[in-house]
Each structure stands twice: as structure tokens, then as C-alpha cells.
Amino acid sequence: MFKKSIIAAACLLSFAALQGCNDAPSSDVKEEVKASPEPAAAVAELKDREPTVDRGRLFHAIKVRTDEDKARDDARNPIQTLEFFRVGPGMAVAEALPGGGWYSKILTTYLGAEGELHGINYNDDMWPRFGFFSEEGIARAIERTSAFPNMIADFSDNGIEASGFTFNSAPEALAGTLDRVLFIRALHNLNRFEEEAGTLTEALKTTHTLLKDSGMVGVVQHQAPDKSSDKWADGSAGYLKKSAVIEAFKEAGFVLVSESDINANPSDLPTESEVVWRLPPSYNGTADDPALKAKVDAIGESNRMTLLFKKAP
């Protein structure tokens, strides 16, 4: 689609030049037309521009999923979120902690055969730090890294390029090639182990290295109330302060481009004795108590910040 746009643009430039000659026969105007850029130069310039959001194609990618996946759309707002992140077909995108691939399914179809989708998993040595995963669970989590391309192939046979790696094993060949890196509910655990292992610092450094000079980072993250203590809002309860996230990206060489309330939920006002996983769809600690479940159902899913950063020059 993007290649066709380039060809069309070149044709229009050629047609415009011919019209200029026909409408203005004076020698001065003819000289000006001769000095105008060649169509080939214009085409080269267009090739350097990033693809733009294609709403029709994005709607299609949303529509072709299962009803089970669509059931989460009202809480996750994928169309508005990917539009806000300025993700376009044909882009090279990395998704941090893709998990079971809820967003990956959309991106695979939307980016298309001309695009790339890379899954970045936590480092292998991060999983034991949680302290509650079994050895089998840790092994399965690690295996998801190399299995990411197979998962994408199961989602679509469109031939999109896919790879899986961790924050400390990113291929050197990808450095400076990505258009977008997405952290969708993936920052809290990186921050959770920052003090003991520098996990967030490493993740943002890797992200900076992978992105093109014009590349951007999209963030959706459970948002802690501003009045929360820094200790509670360190990610271990699932929540981070917006100010802390912005500062971390600033220190890593990014600038904040924009923020949105697309995924905001003002009803989610956790106390410091609560965790984000009490809410749907996890219902941790609330599923078996009808009164508590009714309470969290009335709240809905978490309050989430939605931020867009750009790699600083």
C-alpha cells in the first residue's frame, strides 16, 4: 500500500510539472520548472516518511478477531490506543511482554506482510525474582521468547516478519530499525526489580537502541494515585505513578510527545492495601467473595495512563 502511494505521488509530481509548462509559457516560468526537484528525488523523500494510520485497515484487524478477544475492547480501547501511538501498516514494531498475544493478534493483521512484529520478553533471570513461579512455570515463561514467531504464524499466514528476544538479547541487526516499541501494561514489573537488578534501566536503554531516530514508544500502564507512597507505587502492586514513568523515560533519552485519558478509569482508586490484580479480569482475592467481586466489577478494569514518547535526537 505504501509503495503504491509512493508511485502515485511521483506520478502526481510529474503531472504537476507538465501542467506548469502548459499554463505558463513565459521563459521565466519554464526555467523555474526546469529547476524543480526531479520526481525520483521526491520518491526518495517519500520513502523516508513513516506510514500513517490506516483506520479502515485497523478496523478490519479488530473485526476479524474472536468474540472472546473482542469482549475486552471496551476496557482496552485498541483502536484509539493504536491511533494515539501513530502505528501505521508496514511499520517495524516491538511489543514488550506480549504474553498470550491479545495485542499481537491485532498488530499482525494490521501491520501486514510489509511490516515487522518483534516480541520482547523479560530477561530469563527475571522470572525467578518473582518468588512464586514454579520451575515449570519459569521454563514456560522463558520458552515463550523463542516461540513468539510461531505464535504470530498461528495468528496469520500473511508472512509478516517476526522474532522474539529478551531485553538483554536484542539482535544487533535491529539497532536503529524500529518505528515503535509498545509497553502495554509491561512496565510495573520492570520497575519492581529496578533497585536490585536495574531491569527498567536496561529495558529503556535497549528500547532507545532499537528505535530509529524518529521512533516512538507507546505506554499503557496501571496508574497509581499521586498521593501514593513511592514504596507502594514501585510496581509490586501493579501500579506506577505517571510522574515516575515520565521521569524514567526522560532519563533514558526520551521526550514526552503527548498523553491521553483513553484508558483512564477514575473509579479505580486503590488503597495501599490493594493490588491491581483484585480487579477484572484477574479477580485475585476477590473472585470467591460475592460482595468483593460485585465491588470490583462496579469499578471495572484499572485506571491506566496512556503516554507517547519520542527518541530524543
Kindly describe this structure.
The protein has 313 residues and is an alpha/beta fold. The chain has helices spanning 2-23, 27-35, 39-47, 55-63, 67-70, 73-76, 78-84, 102-111, 135-155, 187-192, 194-197, 199-210, 242-251, 290-299; strands spanning 92-96, 116-121, 161-166, 178-184, 211-222, 254-260, 304-311. The radius of gyration is 23 Å and the shape is globular. The two termini are 29 Å apart.
How do you describe this structure in short?
It is built from 14 helices and seven strands. With 313 residues, it is α/β, with parallel strands linked by helices. A seven-stranded mixed sheet has the order 3-2-1-4-5-7-6, with helices on both faces.
| N-C termini distance | 29 Å
Encode the helix/strand succession as letters.
HHHHHHHEHEHEEHHHEHEHE
Strand order of the largest sheet: 3-2-1-4-5-7-6
Give start-end ranges of low-pLDDT stretches. Answer: 1-48
Instruction: Determine the mean pLDDT.
Output: 88
> How large, in whole angstroms, is the Cα Rg?
23 Å
Provide a count of the helices. Answer: 14
Approximate shape: globular
Helix fraction, binned, reads: 40-55%
Structural class of the secondary structure composition?
alpha/beta
Report the count of strand segments: 7
Strand content: 15-25%
Largest sheet: 7 strands, mixed
